[in-house]
Amino acid sequence: MADLDDLREGRDFGLEVAAGNQGYHVKGAAHLPWGMKDRLSRIFNPKTGRTVMLAFDHGFIMGPTSGLERIDLNIIPLIQYADCLMCTRGILQSVIPPDTNKPVCLRSDAGTTILTELNDNVLIDIEDAIRLNVSAMAVMLSIGDPDFEAKTIANLYKAVDLGSRYGIPVMGVTAVGKQMVRDARYFGLASRICAENGANIVKTYYCEGFEKVAAACPVPVVIAGGKKLPEKEALELCYKAVNDGASGVDMGRNVFQSASPAAMIQAIHAVVHDGLNPEQGYGLFNDLLNSD
Ligand code: R5P
């Protein structure tokens, strides 16, 4: 048991030294078996090492929230622009056409409307994940929450054990525990705990000092977008995140609640994969919006 009484905060993150990829384009995955690498390569573009995941799993705790009232009308037209789809199995099998041929990062735990953002120690049956041919399973962690931290770490552990058995990567999703603040210290802690417990991908939030969060996490970090921002600010968020070490984004509301979701996801894609700066990305957004 580590001695937590004299916990010294990390100071040297080697920010001037890029993390080596050991011959495989996904961070921390060089030693994984073929099936894992095949699935990770479907999520992270082998040319850029990055991904634009489209998250539309919100209904599992929020119901028909704005922009997701009709997944068939709201989301299906966007699928062509996403590198990966993040959703629940209910939406996947009832609405998403099986011939879209996009990798799926399946929300594999459950939530409640009473304690939004906290899962209830439920995990999908791995056989269902295999039947659905998913490329990753997403499991939420509530680090710092006295009621949910242990349960959610146990859930991640179980998912990693099952995923390892069948070659399915696991994404640890960091929910913000009640007593924690959204800073680099907290996200660094939560992200590292995900990776240490075996997550192959970590989803967290951008914050000041994010470069330390990404540097200290031995697997790829993708950022959630959070609440809807003006489009230019959302593009700035993407730009700063990938320049500070994120391997991409897993965004929902900033896409499907945009004035033009199709223009927005294409602009995000250009910032993440093609190196457009926020001004260029916003210019592209406006061009696409006006050509609608
Ligand atoms: C995460 O657990 C949520 O269910 C969403 O997938 C996530 O928050 C990303 O969506 P947004 O960009 O809207 O925050």
- How would the global form be characterised? globular
Oligomer state of the chains in this structure? single chain
Widest sheet: strand order?
Answer: 9-8-7-6-3-2-1-10
Report how far the terminal alpha carbons are from each other: 59 Å
Query: How helical, in percent, are the residues?
Result: 25-40%
Q: Structural class of the secondary structure composition?
A: alpha/beta
Radius of gyration computed on alpha carbons: 18 Å
DSSP summary: helix tally = 12
Note poorly predicted spans.
none
Number of domains as seen in the coordinates = 1
Could you give a short account of the major beta sheet?
A: 8 strands, parallel
Annotated CATH topology: TIM Barrel
CATH architecture: Alpha-Beta Barrel
Task: Provide the CATH top-level class.
Answer: Alpha Beta
Strand segment tally: 10
